[in-house]
Amino acid sequence: MELHALVHLQVTVRIIQERVQPDLYVLGAIITNAHRLRVIEVGRVSPVLGVVRADARLLYATTAGKILALTRSKALDDYAVVVNRLRDGIL
Q1: Which residues fall within 8 angstroms of residue 34, CB to CB, at 6 or more apart?
Q2: In which band, very low, low, confident or very high, does the pLDDT at 19 lie, cut at 50, 70 and 90?
Q3: Are residues 83 and 68 part of one domain?
């Protein structure tokens, strides 16, 4: 499934580059709720910026509309790692 979505993303980016914005590019992919083999497969197509673990706390907070009240979450920690990597330019 992830590779199917990435292929569509690549096609869409290519069309936008040709018709609208030639400087558009994708930095990479953030893998969520994926099996380890999927991460390897996606990594062959696009740089993997990070892997985010599944976390029930984040799921419940987003579905209940209480995401701003969430203070601890494995998934939030994983997203923070990706943000810090992007900020520090370590990609």
Answers
A1: 2, 42, 51
A2: very high
A3: yes
